[in-house]
């Protein structure tokens, strides 16, 4: 828990480059590096979902990232995986707290 508050306070500024990158790809309607989903998208999605567990409102100041998470999470196979026990029950940090 030490440092969590400061980390989450700095997070919106750290996410700005991703919001900017998305805005440059079809106005935020494409993916992180172009018009097709890539490994980078799955990595960024995982990072953003973890941050939403730590702070559910962390994307509120980044509407393109918030829409990106919703859009990718709605893809049928990804949606099924995100609802699976393997994903839902996985620890996201080493201290057992979420």
Explain this structure:
The protein has helices at residues 4-23, 39-54, 63-73, 76-83, 85-88. The protein has 98 residues and is mainly alpha-helical. It has one domain: Up-down Bundle (Glutathione S-transferase Yfyf (Class Pi), Chain A, domain 2). InterPro entries: Glutathione-S-Trfase_C-like, Glutathione-S-Trfase_C_sf, GST_C, GST_superfamily. One of its GO terms (molecular function) is glutathione transferase activity. This is GST C-terminal domain-containing protein.
* Beta-strand residue fraction: under 5%
Number of domains: 1
CATH class: Mainly Alpha
Mean pLDDT over the full residue set: 90
Proportion in helices = 55-70%
Instruction: Characterize the biggest β-sheet.
Output: none
How many helices? 5
> How far from one another are the termini?
10 Å
GO molecular function: glutathione transferase activity
Domain GST C-terminal: 1-92
GO cellular component, one term: cytosol
InterPro entries: Glutathione-S-Trfase_C-like, Glutathione-S-Trfase_C_sf, GST_C, GST_superfamily
Write the layout of secondary structure elements.
Elements: H1 4-23, H2 39-54, H3 63-73, H4 76-83, H5 85-88
Helix pairs in contact: 2-3
Short description:
The protein contains five helices and no strands. By secondary structure, the chain is mainly α.
């Amino acid at each position: 828990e030490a440092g969590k508050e400061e980390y989450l306070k700095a997070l919106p500024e750290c996410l700005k480059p991703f919001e900017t990158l998305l805005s440059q790809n079809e106005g935020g309607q494409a993916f992180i590096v172009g018009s097709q989903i890539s490994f980078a998208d799955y990595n960024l999605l995982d990072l953003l979902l973890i941050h939403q567990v730590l702070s559910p409102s962390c994307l509120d100041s980044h509407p393109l990232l918030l829409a990106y998470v919703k859009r990718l999470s709605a893809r049928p196979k990804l949606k099924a995986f995100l609802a699976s026990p393997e994903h839902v029950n996985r620890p996201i940090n080493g201290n057992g707290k979420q």
